[in-house]
Amino acid sequence: MGLRDPLYWLYERRLERKLGDADTPRHVGVILDGNRRWARISGLGDVNRGHQAGADKIFELLGWCSERGVQVVTLWLLSTDNLGRPREELEPLLRIIENTVIRLRDEGWNVNPMGALDLLPDSTARVMKEAGAATSGKPGLIVNVAVGYGGRREIADAVRSLLAEEAAKGTTIEELAERLDLEHIGEHLYTRGQPDPDLLIRTSGEQRLSGFLLWQSAHSEFYFCEVFWPAFRRVDFLRALRAFGARNRRFGS
């Protein structure tokens, strides 16, 4: 064992000891950024090896979240903008995502697909829906898998769903306009019934949300981490929790 290994272990234990129950967010959202850049700087050549390493890292993160008592994790795997990538780049990424979702299902995580599934290839949409149906209601950590996701699209879908529901009841636009409030829209989001994210993490050093959970993140705390996603360590996760616990949450004030 090298000199850095025991020092890392001691630092990790120290961080963990300092964290209390109040430092655990109920819902953690993660923008898994930097897979391609990690592959390049690691000399792997094929960027899909970075995507696969990033997919494998997800299961480490879920273990860490489960240990800490996190209730919900939202993973942004593919945006609606990414669907416009060249076919030779997009198809291998979609296969990795499909295999990841199947593994989540097989390991018994409670998978909640979210995103514009109608924009995805049939095979990807089918895997997402089957995983959601097979794991719905399982106890423990809920894993929101955001594929073909965009924050603006989610809000538009929520409004569209709300209008369709009210139209089926015979509600007029005028009647709906009189009583429409934030809760009505919230009930039609992809994350309906879940707590809003307390903590949003983005890796790779980028300091923007890029449309991630636009509606739900109104009162979230943000943590931007320099490390690329495949290199994200448990100590990085604990640092994010430490930063979250140190914040004085004002909820908009």
Automatic annotation (TrEMBL):
Gene Ontology molecular function: any one: ditrans,polycis-polyprenyl diphosphate synthase [(2E,6E)-farnesyl diphosphate specific] activity
Superkingdom as given in the UniProt entry: Bacteria
A cellular component term, taken from the record's GO annotations: plasma membrane
Binding-site positions, Mg(2+): D33, E221
The protein's required cofactors: Mg(2+)
Pfam families (alphabetical): Prenyltransf
Keyword Magnesium tagged: yes
Alphabetical UniProt keywords: Magnesium, Metal-binding, Transferase
Note on how the cofactor is bound: Binds 2 magnesium ions per subunit.
TM region positions: none
Residue sites binding substrate per the record: G34, N35, R36, R37, W38, H51, S79, T80, D81, R85, R202, R208, L209, S210
UniProt-listed GO biological process terms: polyprenol biosynthetic process
InterPro entries named among the record's database cross-references: UPP_synth-like (IPR001441), UPP_synth-like_CS (IPR018520), UPP_synth-like_sf (IPR036424)
Its EC number(s): 2.5.1.-
Active site per the UniProt annotation: D33, N82
PANTHER family reported for this sequence: DEHYDRODOLICHYL DIPHOSPHATE SYNTHASE COMPLEX SUBUNIT DHDDS (PTHR10291:SF43), DEHYDRODOLICHYL DIPHOSPHATE SYNTHASE FAMILY MEMBER (PTHR10291)
Family: Belongs to the UPP synthase family. Z-FPP synthase subfamily.
HAMAP family to which the protein is assigned, alphabetical: ISPT (MF_01139)
Protein task: Catalyzes the condensation of isopentenyl diphosphate (IPP) with allylic pyrophosphates generating different type of terpenoids.
Subunit field text: Homodimer.
Listed name of the protein: Isoprenyl transferase
